[in-house]
Amino acid sequence: MAAADDATFASTDDLDEAEQEAVQDLLFRLADDELVLAERYTEWQVRAPTLESDISMANIAQDELGHARLWYEVLKGFGYDETDLIWERDADDFRHSTLVEQPFAEGDWADAIVRAYLYDVAEDIQLHALKNSTFEPIRDRVGKVLGEEDYHLEYATNWLERLAADDEGRENVQDAVDRLYPYALTLFEPTDEEVEATIVERGLRGEDLVELRDTWHDRVSDFLESIGIEVPGLDLPDQYDVHISPDELPEHLGRDGDHTDHWESLLDEMTEAYDELGRDYATHIMDDDE
Amino acid sequence: MIWEVFRQNQAGDYHTHCGNVHAPDREMALLFAEVQHGRRKPTNSLWVVPQEEIGEVDTEDAKFGGTTNKSYRFARTYNVEPAAEEVEASEKELTEAERKRGEA
What we know:
The complex is a heterodimer. Helices cover 59% and strands 0% of the residues of chain A. Chain A is mainly alpha-helical.
């Protein structure tokens, strides 16, 4: 972390090869998580419990898409265009966590809210660790993203408090936590251990994934236990190489490009119109944010 | 439960009724109102009020302003020449207010 004190990278031109790889890796994690989660959220359109919840969820999805766009825009600095980044990318090149690609069971609102909560706390912690990133284009965008995240967290916690207020609701929340918790842990898995080490060494992110996960686990457990929900502990192995992965991880991590089957069908659905129209460019209806 | 929502465009403006939201309590009503009524229009502040807490009196129950001529309530009714400067100022204000109402 010594480098973080004095080095700062104003643009992609200031990065050496290892740093370029690390910054891209970091951005793909951020952008892909937001894109895929937003895509899943939109499945609740006209299906949420009330009109108001519906509009709020759609609004949150739009926020997350906006954040994905902010991060993808930085990736364009490495020579990608939108077709490379989204429309024509292979499913196993996406780096999102398998938490965000899981389908919702029909009408399982508790799943949507628990997932939003687990994700939003992780995002909040991660963004704070990026506030002092040595890579300026990332650092400059953090405030904008955080500005919209407070609402997401408040929305998820307010819903959870109300869902857990009676036995049936609490049971639904508990089921969702038990099911989603292992997938949430993949948020903190490295895409590649060596690249992850560079991310931390060069101060691109202020904390390593294990530190982020510990903070996340404490915060999530404190809150969920306060509303009567049990949270699994973290079982960590005695021996590890670089990154410490907990035992509870699911079979597919996502971060390493290995996804569950749900991802391929979701991506097909997402790009269906693009493919059917035989497009080779992305349509733009508004100007870039910056 | 229905909550009536009032939006203020910018600091200093009145909060104006803009619609309502369904929500179980005040906290959720505010969260929903923020998105439903604050996301596409300039908003400085929102109020939510339980619909059942709003009292109403309308033209069926009341004769607003009374039924007889009470034009003396308006300063410009006093046609004294020359008008006192207070009357003139008041008249200007009234004309201006009417003009604005006409525009709105």
